[in-house]
Amino acid sequence: MLDYNTEAAVYDATRGGVPRAESAARAVLDLVPESARTLLDIGCGTGLVGERIVLARPGLKVFGTDASYGMARFARQRIGAVALADARRLPLGDGAVDAVAAIWLLHLLRGAGDVRAVVSEAARVLRPGGVFVTTVDKDAAHDVGSDIDEAFAPYLRPRPSDGEELVVAYGAEAGLDVMGEARFLGHGQGRTPQSAARGVRKGDFVSRLELPGEAAEQLAGALLGLPDQDRPRRDPEYRLVVFRRRG
How far is it, in rounded angstroms, from Cα 9 to Cα 13? Predict the structure, then answer.
């Protein structure tokens, strides 16, 4: 599992930087009503997406939370109001904000009940009629039919924690109704065999792959045997689902 406190310093540079963040921000704003005045970005990371949201819609006040001190430290420099917090226990009162976003978060939550708890908390802090925007099936978006995906196939986890059906079911329990969806391109996320092998050895793919024992080294070896080691494969296209809180 990645140590996001240390990863924070290189996170943006290794994950598409501003182009990917702007793509995500535009898609989020397509789903957030113009009338919204406050948005909570849970698992805000370095705050790069939140900063792009603020720049694109200055009238929308963005707050952030993240469980990693390293990430939150960067985010504070970009969006200001950031709290170090567990997304399962948000430091806000009921009905406090008009919108909540969770971008590239739910797929990382592997503990029993974690995703349900986060969706429930998002619903709790939303005012009636507020919207919750989240990525779903994040890891599946990286399957672009490449030779890297073929190498990954035997090691895929059978049930992603952010599968759309699961997230929709948890939303319904929490009083959230699906209202629509959007897609956006993960600029700079097309992997090379070399970068995929490094990621496997580093533990980057824990949410997507099961690699017990020597499996990680075996997979890394297979990836390093692929042709065109430095050629990025196609960028993924991520999906967002938007929910509205009843009442």
Answer: 9
Q: Assess whether pLDDT exceeds 70 at residue 216.
A: yes
CB distance 58 to 35 below 8 Å:
no
**pLDDT tens per residue across span 100-146:** 999 999 999 988 899 999 999 999 999 999 999 999 999 999 999 99
Rg (CA), the chain: 18
In the predicted model, is pLDDT for residue 68 greater than 90? yes
Pairing of strands 176-185, 237-245: antiparallel
The answer to whether residue 223 sits within a structural domain is no
CATH code, domain with 93: 3.40.50.150
Domain that holds residue 48: 4-138+159-189+236-245
Is residue 226 in a domain? Answer: no
- CA dist 116 and 172 (Å) reads 11
Question: How many CB atoms neighbour CB 230 within 10 A?
Answer: 8
Count of domains observed in the chain = 1
Give the closest residue to 23 by CA, choosing from 237, 190, 241, 242.
Answer: 237
